[in-house]
Amino acid sequence: xxxxxxxxxxxxxxxxxxxxxxxxxxxxxxxxxxxxxxxxxxxxxxxxxxxxxxxxxxxxxxxxxxxxxxxxxxxxxxxxxxxxxxxxxxxxxxxxxxxxxxxxxxxxxxxxxxxxxxxxxxxxxxxxxxxxxxxxxxxxxxxxxxxxxxxxxxxxxxxxxxxxxxxxxxxxxxxxxxxxxxxxxxxxxxxxxxxxxxxxxxxxxxxxxxxxxxxxxxxxxxxxxxxxxxxxxxxxxxxxxxxxxxxxxxxxxxxxxxxxxxxxxxxxxxxxxxxxxxxxxxxxxxxxxxxxxxxxxxxxxxxxxxxxxxxxxxxxxxxxxxxxxxxxxxxxxxxxxxxxxxxxxxxxxxxxxxxxxxxxxxxxxxxxxxxxxxxxxxxxxxxxxxxxxxxxxxxxxxxxxxxxxxxxxxxxxxxxxxxxxxxxxxxxxxxxxxxxxxxxxxxxxxxx
Length: 448
Ligand SMILES: Nc1ncnc2c1ncn2[C@@H]1O[C@H](COP(=O)(O)OP(=O)(O)O)[C@@H](O)[C@H]1O
Ligand SMILES: [Mg+2]
What we know:
It contains 10 helices and 23 strands. The protein is α/β, with parallel strands linked by helices. It has a 9-stranded mixed β-sheet, sandwiched between helices. Strands 15-16-18-17 form a 4-stranded mixed β-sheet. A 3-stranded antiparallel β-sheet has the order 2-1-3, with no helix packed on it. Keywords: ATP-binding, DNA damage, DNA repair, DNA-binding, Hydrolase, Metal-binding, Nucleotide-binding, Stress response, Zinc, Zinc-finger.
């Protein structure tokens, strides 16, 4: 073991020497030598704790999960709420977070234990009314109306009930007395969360914290919350469809690829179970309509794209989209105008995704282009077709991720006429490879 020795370092340029120097030989700085000791590498073997060493061939007990029995939620959570884990359920005010928590509380059955639902935000009346409206009368739910973290935890401790889950609605209302700032401030939110995280770990109880999102899309106050919790569930409004999308933004216990779409009804959030056909239910092969499969969150979703190309009513042509980014549409219009000499520049153009579902997946480009061509000539595609591919500025159709999976899903939902980019050799005649937008014209009936 090396003994600590004296060294000198120039505070100006970092030159090191074993001897003191009045003037640094490198940078000529005067009196810049600072004495320092090299680290003492002697190991202190005193009264330190000895942590267990984990070997990779050793069986670790799996994280224990509490199933919520709310099928779609259990899917998103890969089986349920993990004991001792802290979840953040974030979303805009009014999106349905409190409703979702109430429904999860309802579906947790008595054998799985007791639920504390803490509300610091709404009055007893408001919460009880919601539970009544949702027809929740479970005896295994205890409501606590309080926002002081210590009072809440004390109430839980004194109840002599060991809950299987604690819901906190919301983290922005929590406060700790010893912190001199108001509830909702970054400090209060962060420290309250820290205390809740500690409690969850110590007692091995999952805690779900509701967090409101502010206008900028960050969880109000601190983004830092996301780092403190184990899982982040985000609830978003899906475009003009009015549907609520629940997705996993972070998950320490599993993948983040499940999403659930809900309708909001008088009786609460109702999962859309036939998600593969939900956005296709009104589809028919009329002019302007094309099908595609897009990635929403991590989920592949079949969806209809509709376009209407018409003569402008007023002077300058309008471009209106619903669910589809306008700049994407403008790019596709420019490419089709240039490469196919399509007379789009002077037309009014409307493009929407079914239900206004917000899509950012550029693999829908070819479907948009087909819808535009179809509407321009008022001619439907020869067959009901599902189309994939991203369009480049040069008019070529580029490969897309998850093509095999999209093909599989197309066939599963009963569509065999498929347009794909060239990055895969087709196994069936009904699969058409399109290398450029020029190839898209062939997909329409002759004389159209
Ligand atoms: N009496 C009611 N009947 C039907 N729907 C209601 C009723 N009250 C609230 N809702 C629906 O529930 C939503 C509010 O959900 P809530 O769970 O309170 O949102 P959050 O907790 O995210 O702020 C409203 O946007 C509304 O659509
Ligand atoms: Mg609420």
